[in-house]
Design goal:
CATH superfamily: DNA ligase/mRNA capping enzyme
Oligomer: single chain
Strand content: 25-35%
Largest sheet: 7 strands, mixed
Distance between the termini: 36 Å
Helix content: 10-25%
Number of domains: 1
CATH topology: D-amino Acid Aminotransferase, Chain A, domain 1
CATH architecture: 2-Layer Sandwich
Shape: globular
Number of strands: 11
Number of helices: 5
Length: 208
């Protein structure tokens, strides 16, 4: 088991907390031929691998909200190679954002093979093979102040957490700190009680 790396905040991200890290060099994003902006979903970072799944911390214990995720991963894990990991956001339990029309409780955003985060297009192809729904795409293009502003104009930060931006080409997992970043709304956490310690309130799937 391997813990998924930390995504640094863009300098303009208003939701930086005391233990967060801020991107100091955006050269890899700014010089990229193409980046993809995806919606930052408010859930639990979860990894699926050949022998099951785990939350961002591999030693995380049992929680009743994770039963759905374990059952879902049981259908994916046998299809994965030993060096292959699928990472995404698990959205069964409501955190600070409430969702009422999710396509799935697990939305993928990374496919990692032998320490390499695969290209976005290859990732989408692998997700299609495995029956995994990707996080919503907000924009593809260059990483510029104009594109960042355009993406923010598409978001309702009263109902959405923010966005994640990454290069569309593959990169070493150790280069996460330079090849991707996030923007999180101000005052994102709006409860004094951690979601794991209160009543589990389920997000809702799209009807139909």
């Amino acid at each position: 088991m391997k813990k998924y790396g930390r995504t640094y905040h863009l300098p303009s991200s208003p939701g930086v907390m005391s233990d967060d890290k801020i991107l100091k060099d955006s050269a890899a994003l700014a010089s990229a031929a193409e980046v993809v902006f995806t919606e930052k979903m408010d859930g639990e970072n979860t990894t699926i691998l050949q022998n099951g799944c785990h939350a961002r911390s591999p030693d995380s214990g049992y929680h009743p909200s994770r039963d759905w995720m374990k059952a879902f991963a049981a259908g994916v894990s046998p299809c994965l190679a030993e060096d292959e990991r699928i990472v995404g956001e698990y959205l069964f339990a409501q955190h600070s954002v409430s969702y009422d029309s999710l396509p799935s409780y697990f939305l993928g955003f990374a496919w990692i093979v032998d320490g390499v985060t695969q290209s976005w297009d290859a990732t989408l192809g692998r997700f299609a093979e495995l029956g995994i729904t990707p996080v919503p795409v907000l924009h593809r293009g260059l990483f510029t102040p104009t594109s960042v502003e355009a993406v923010l104009n598409k978001l309702d930060l009263n109902k959405q957490e923010g966005f994640v931006v990454r290069t569309t080409v593959s990169f070493q997992e150790t280069d996460m700190a330079t090849h991707m970043a996030k923007y999180v709304r101000a005052d994102h956490v709006q409860s004094d009680t951690h979601w794991m310690h209160g009543e589990v309130i389920k997000n809702r799937l799209v009807k139909g």
